[in-house]
Specification:
The protein is of the alpha/beta class. It has a single domain (about 5-35, about 55-260), classed as 3-Layer(aba) Sandwich (Rossmann fold). The chain has helices at about 10-25, 40-50, 50-75, 95-105, 120-125, 150-155, 190-215, 240-255, 260; strands at about 5-10, 30, 85-90, 110, 130-135, 145, 160-165, 175-180, 230-235. α1 links the parallel β1 and β2.
């Protein structure tokens, strides 16, 4: 089976890609370096507020340190993908990616950490196969960014910390669901342990879904609208106040109440063999 991976350029993305390649032998990898992409006027304007950005950075320090330590742990485990055809781009939708897909005609394209795919690229891929996406958040309840686990902390909704594997569409984490699952947590994790558990759990779900696909098993195809209207969070909403709420709730509630708040049963999730359409 021909499989292409479209991934971001962070260590967690590359580590996931290595796992997929080891298990299923990728035909090509596209790495999207979003840091080189052109900034929108709104993004440039946001960067100009140096004082507010400085305050936000200071408040974000515990979250940032935990995230960087998590990335460093994945970096240590990287072995490289030298045997696989590589393409490094600033935008996943460039013509070179469209041409690569046209040449290989993959039966499956797996996506994690890229910018949104355009209708043109999606159409090109679906001529030969399917597109499967990993979202490190629990769709439809928590979609968008910059980090859905941190949004759950900010909103004091620990029961919504989890991951989703979906059939990709043009929207923001809005595709039909293959599998959703809350990350198993004890409530006594450090910030580093929390982020590492969520990420590793998401990788495991993705690997399971890919394995099912390669065995030609029928996978769920559940519309998110059938479950909940959901919420989409945007990076521009991730203000200094939200940062403070995230860390404050982690210290005051997550670490104190532990399982009481994490084990809420008001969340519908989609199992690997459930709700097949």
């Amino acid at each position: 089976m021909k499989i292409i991976a479209l991934i971001g350029d962070q260590p967690n993305h590359k580590y996931l890609c290595e796992r997929i390649n080891q298990a299923f032998a990728l035909d090509a990898v596209v790495i999207v370096n979003k840091n080189n992409s052109a900034k929108s006027p709104a993004q440039r304007a946001a960067k100009s507020h140096l004082l507010s950005q400085g305050i936000k950075k200071l408040l974000s320090l515990p979250l940032t340190v935990a995230w960087r330590k998590m990335q460093a742990s994945f970096q240590q485990d990287l072995n490289g993908l030298t045997s696989v055809k590589h393409l490094v781009v600033d935008d996943v939708n460039v013509q070179a990616v469209v041409d690569l897909v046209a040449a290989i005609k993959p039966e499956l394209v797996v996506v994690s950490g890229t910018n949104l795919l355009t209708a043109e690229l999606i159409e090109r891929i679906t001529r030969s196969g399917k597109i499967m996406n990993l979202h490190t958040g629990l769709s439809p309840y928590v979609k968008g960014g910059p980090n859905c686990t941190n949004w759950c902390l900010a909103n004091n909704e620990f029961q919504l910390i989890g991951n989703t594997v979906m059939w990709l569409d043009e929207g923001i984490d809005s595709g039909n669901l293959i599998r959703t699952e809350r990350t198993p947590l004890l409530g006594n994790e450090s910030l580093l342990q929390l982020h590492k558990k969520v990420m590793t759990h998401g990788h495991d779900l993705f690997m399971q879904a890919i394995a099912s696909f390669t065995r030609n098993e029928t996978l769920p195809n559940v519309s998110q609208d059938d479950i909940d209207s959901g919420r989409v969070f945007y990076s521009r909403q991730w203000t200094a106040a939200k940062v403070a709420s995230a860390y404050g709730n982690f210290l005051l509630h997550y670490k104190v109440h532990k399982l009481q708040k994490i084990q809420g049963l008001d969340v519908l999730t989609i199992g690997d063999r459930e709700h097949e359409h």
